């Protein structure tokens, strides 16, 4: 018979993995912006923008997380969060499936970096503190980090592991920072699209699990149901990718060849 003691480590592991991967994806995108700002406009104002954004995000977690835990009933929180995670996760999963099937362009961080550099170089130079560098770095980190905060708060508070979720996000930020310092502009080597597929699967699985718990239904095996849901949705995603690839190949084969025009 499964007990809370046996299922708790499994739930914690899945939680840490989901938060770490989701945070890493968003942090790669934020790092791309910060690197472009630092290289093009200078590092002083860019770093200041990053630090202010991180302080603002930490404040949101510190204020909103405990408030949700103490003042919102757990069943209502799980139902609302589960529904939000389903919507959020399905968006990630849909894009990842389309990219894997070749029907949507993959995320190219090198191209995004070059685009940001071109825009920043076109801006007028600044004397002293660079408001453009500060603003772009702040917005990049804050907006990408806001998605991380939402994931940390929703996953952490619903599972009563807010501290663990925050640590996983912090670990992801640290790893991405180290990798960014090592590889600098070669961010396309980070398997972001594969990570997004994994994050989508986990968010949808958590959403299904907690939305069901929110209506007072219980899963066999408690937290052990989450890896089973991940595997199930992974099979569904793989089937969709295979089906879409087959359909695209059939359409390509059936498309008539264009004959050259003769004058």
Describe this structure in words.
This protein is mainly α. It has one domain. α1 runs antiparallel to α5, α3 crosses α5 and α3 runs antiparallel to α7. The longest helix is centred in the N-terminal third of the chain and has 38 residues.
Strand residues, percent? under 5%
Low-pLDDT residue intervals, each spanning 5 or more residues: 1-7
Category from helices, strands and their pairing: mainly alpha
The gyration radius over C-alpha positions equals: 22 Å
General shape: flat
Per DSSP E runs of 2 or more residues, the count of β-strands stands at: 0
Outline the biggest β-sheet.
none
Number of helices: 8
Helix coverage percent of residues? Answer: over 70%
**Distance N to C terminus:** 81 Å
Task: Indicate how many domains the architecture comprises.
Answer: 1
Mean pLDDT equals 77
Topology pattern, helix = H, strand = E:
HHHHHHHH
Keywords:
263 residues, mainly alpha, disordered N terminus, single chain
Question: What is the fold's blueprint, element by element?
Answer:
Layout: H1 4-41, H2 43-71, H3 74-100, H4 109-122, H5 131-158, H6 162-183, H7 192-214, H8 225-254
């Amino acid at each position: 018979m499964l007990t809370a003691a046996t299922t708790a480590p499994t739930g914690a592991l899945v939680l840490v993995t989901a938060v770490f991967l989701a945070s890493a994806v968003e942090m790669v995108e934020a790092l791309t912006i910060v690197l472009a700002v630092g290289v093009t406009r200078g590092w002083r104002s860019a770093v200041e923008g990053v630090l202010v954004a991180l302080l603002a995000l930490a404040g949101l977690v510190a204020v909103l997380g405990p408030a949700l835990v103490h003042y919102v009933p757990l069943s209502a929180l799980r139902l609302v969060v589960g529904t939000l995670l389903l919507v959020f996760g399905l968006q990630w999963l849909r894009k990842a499936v389309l990219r894997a099937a070749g029907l949507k362009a993959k995320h190219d961080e090198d191209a995004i970096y070059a685009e940001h550099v071109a825009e920043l170089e076109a801006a007028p130079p600044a004397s002293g503190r660079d408001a453009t560098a500060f603003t772009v770095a702040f917005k990049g980190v804050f907006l990408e980090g806001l998605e991380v905060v939402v994931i940390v708060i929703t996953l952490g508070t619903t599972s009563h592991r807010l501290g663990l979720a925050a640590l996983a996000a912090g670990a992801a930020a640290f790893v991405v920072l180290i990798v960014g310092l090592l590889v600098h502009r070669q961010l396309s080597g980070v398997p972001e699209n594969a990570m997004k597929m994994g994050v989508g699967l986990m968010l949808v699985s958590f959403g299904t699990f907690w939305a069901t718990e929110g209506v007072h239904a219980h899963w066999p095996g408690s937290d052990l149901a989450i890896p089973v849901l991940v595997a199930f949705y992974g099979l569904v995603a793989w089937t969709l990718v295979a089906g879409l690839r087959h359909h695209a190949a059939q359409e390509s084969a059936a498309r008539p060849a264009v004959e050259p025009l003769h004058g």
